[in-house]
Input
Amino acid sequence: MAHRIAIASDHAAVDLKAALADYLREKGHDVSDLGPPSTDSVDYPLYGYKLADVIASGEADYGVALCGSGIGISIAINRSPACRCALVSEPLSATFARSHNDANVIAMGARLIGPEMAKACLDAFFSTDFAGDRHQRRVDQLSNPSFAKDQA
Output
């Protein structure tokens, strides 16, 4: 199934971003590259917020976020209640991110993961459906902290 996917990075992950965007296009997905266009130094929060806005607006179904470690950009993206961004480093965590957390953004660290492992993570992420059931309640709580506090 083809998805609308937005991809963004910081300067440390520009090369990995280009490789993964090409890979996703080869798989038949509609990919929007949100930048940056070069390895000139940029601030990862700006690109994380840009990606989060595209997900929140519905312009893309899923996002791929990359920075040196994957940590900073994932923190920025998770500031948006519309996003559930999971930092992953291997296919099993990518699978759980989708099946248990209904993650709509996957984050990876370009300095920590090679292109082939990153592709394997994308394959796992995009081939896994959300399991629903008991996990739905928890996903609802992620998007509505005040509701979650009332349940505790």
Observations:
- The longest helix spans residues 44-57.
- Residues 5 and 39 are 22 Å apart (CA to CA).
- The mean pLDDT is 92.
- The radius of gyration is 15 Å.
